[in-house]
Amino acid sequence: MAERKARRYARLSLAIVYLAAGIFHLAHPAPFLKITPNWVPQPSLVIALTGLCEIAGAIALTQWWNPGLRKAAGGMLALYAVCVFPANINHMLMDSARPDHGLGWVYHAPRMVLQPVLVWLALWSAHVIQWPFGRDG
Predict the structure, then answer these.
(1) Most Cβ neighbours (<10 Å): which of 14, 82, 92, 131?
(2) Buried b / exposed e across 34-73, counting CB within 10 Å, b at 16+?
């Protein structure tokens, strides 16, 4: 029972984070455009689409009555976190090259470490994977 509550709390927390991020992507795209790698085509469109994907994923994560949709959202948000990782790396490299080091390692090191955790959390909280806890009781 505790694991079910933990998953629900994690899933709803993740939904709040992705909803806020999606809204921010749409309302204030400039910071995201700055860190988008040069090889990304139509960066403005990509940033808008990522915002919409975050919002859609957040809404789908909250669907307690539709486990299939919730699982799909967890899988897609995990994939999304993998896909945006190059922008996070680009941001870190851009900041490292600045004379003042931008946001510095205090910001970037946890962000790099937590990206795989975000992938896992999306999958685990949506019941896509059980690892490392085994099966639900």
Answers:
(1) 14
(2) ebbeeeeeebeebbeebbebbbbbbebbbbeeeeeebbbb
